[in-house]
Amino acid sequence: MTRIFVPLVLIAMVLFASAPLVVANAPVEQTMGLVQKIFYYHVPSAMLLFVSAFVCGIASAVFLFRRSAAADRVALAAGELVVLFGLIVLVTGPIWARKAWGVWWEWDARLTSSLLLWMIFVAYLMVRRFGGPGSEKLAGAMALFGMANVPFVYVSVNYWRTLHPKTSVVMTLAPGMRGAFWFCVAAFAILYLLLLTLRKRLEDQQAMVEQLYLAVEE
Question: Where are the alpha helices (DSSP H) in 101-133?
């Protein structure tokens, strides 16, 4: 990963510098107008919110069943990114909703379940930070619970009456919109990979420092 880290950083910089131009040149949606372009940032962030919840949950399962400290550090890094990308989703969504629905927030299935998912991982981080010795196991169980909620959040728009568009909306994009969308997805995915790697490396270094302190005390 070290060898490709700098190229990935450069690629991410180029993609995010180009993204506004790509989004600006995408076709304007006839019903919502320019505000629909929030879609190109809102949906990729939501996709990575789900991905990170799975990464956190799977890594937590490995930690709980195999006592892998490295997996626990991956889980912590991914849990923080769930909160970060979830916050982007919860900020961009109401901005879009205000224009599309006439309200900032509606307590429908998708919005409410997304908020609850985000709050679960906020609680996960709080337990990790303030729970004291042994809190990693409780936090790991919370991460598994959060991961189990991801499919429910995803399919909620297909089974309940909601203002939020259904999951099939991506497949129905016009060709010009589809290219811009996947461009933004690639940019966010590379950014996510870089943030996850950096945060995991920071946790690894902190663990090494703690081991050195223990060795000195002995």
Answer: 109-130
Question: DSSP 3-state assignment of 133?
Answer: coil
- Which of the 8 DSSP states describes residue 14? H
Specify if 141 maps to a domain.
Answer: yes
DSSP assignment of 40-108 equals HHHHHHHHHHHHHHHHHHHHHHHHHHH--HHHHHHHHHHHHHHHHHHHHHHHHHHHHHHHHTSSS----
Q: What is the largest CA-CA distance in the chain?
A: 70
Q: Contact, 202 vs 74, CB < 8 A?
A: no
Domain extent for 71? 36-217
Q: How far is CA 179 from CA 160, 166, 170, 214, in A?
A: 30, 20, 11, 53
**Which helix (H) or strand (E) covers residue 8, if one does?**
helix 2-25
How does pLDDT run across 18-46, given as a tens digit for each residue?
Answer: 999 999 999 988 878 888 899 999 999 99
* Helices 109-130 + 135-159 axis angle, to 10: 170
| pLDDT at site 193 | 94
Arithmetic mean of pLDDT, 182-187: 95
Range of 2-16, 60-74, 157-171 with top mean pLDDT: 60-74
Query: Is 58's pLDDT higher than 80?
Result: yes
How many folded domains does the chain comprise? 1
Q: Is residue 52 part of a domain?
A: yes
